[in-house]
Amino acid sequence: MPDGSGGEIKKGRKFEQVLEGARRIFMADGYEGASVDDIARAAKVSKATLYSYFPDKRLLFLEVAKGECARQADLATATIDQCRPVREVLTEAGMTLVRFVTSAFARGIFRLCVAEAERFPQLGREFYQSGPAMGRARFVEYFESAIERGELKIDDVELAAEQFQELCKADLFQRMIFCNTHDFTDAEIERVVTGAVDVFLARYGA
């Protein structure tokens, strides 16, 4: 499968089947480790069928990445219970967010987008809209509800949502990218997320 950005995605009867097979392989092996043979086998389609839908490996990976980011955004906000204390909600959502951001799959997305940013800027833009921007929008919705209930005091909810996500990644993301550190323990993640929630509520708590 070519690695260029040429070609367009063509949807058809086996489109979702191909995506699910590719998702399993990309999640297990990452972008570089995923082979066309393995993807076709997991999707139970021929390589010709795979090529007919996705003539470009990057297009296939990006499509899988967009779907997975949307799924993770749903997971991060699905546990939001408006009746629970803000601290509990933010801690649980933050833990879910960081576990995904530091996963092998997310690393693959980030590195691909950075590597191809100049040649194929649409890759990064599409990932941003389906990943970080979507997650921020979910937090904005929650913050607005919490403000109405008198639990938070925020003037700029867009900025606050961005700040919270960045606080949750403090130290961990930099170590992952620059030090090639991958296997963070729950204790390490909890330490950072708890600190993020403390700082956030110190600034925006009612």
From TrEMBL:
MF GO annotations? DNA-binding transcription factor activity; transcription cis-regulatory region binding
Which residues lie in coiled coils?
none
Record keywords, A-Z: DNA-binding, Transcription, Transcription regulation
> This protein's superkingdom?
Bacteria
Enumerate the spans annotated as HTH tetR-type domain: 12-72
Under InterPro entries, the record lists: DNA-bd_HTH_TetR-type_CS, Homeodomain-like_sf, HTH-type_TetR-like_transc_reg, HTH_TetR, Tet_transcr_reg_TetR-rel_C_sf, TetR_C_Proteobacteria
Summarize which parts of the chain are annotated to bind DNA, as ranges.
35-54
**UniProt-recorded name of the protein:** Transcriptional regulator, TetR family protein
Tell me what organism the protein belongs to: Oceanicola granulosus (strain ATCC BAA-861 / DSM 15982 / KCTC 12143 / HTCC2516)
